[in-house]
Amino acid sequence: MVNTSNVQVTISLTELGLDDEDLQAEVQNLLPQLRDVDGVEDADLVAVEKAPKNTKALGGFLLGLLNAQVNVANIKTVFVFLSDRLGNKPIKMVLKAPDGRELDLEASSREEFEFAIQKAQDFLNGTSNS
Question: What is this structure's pTM?
Answer without folding.
Answer: 0.84
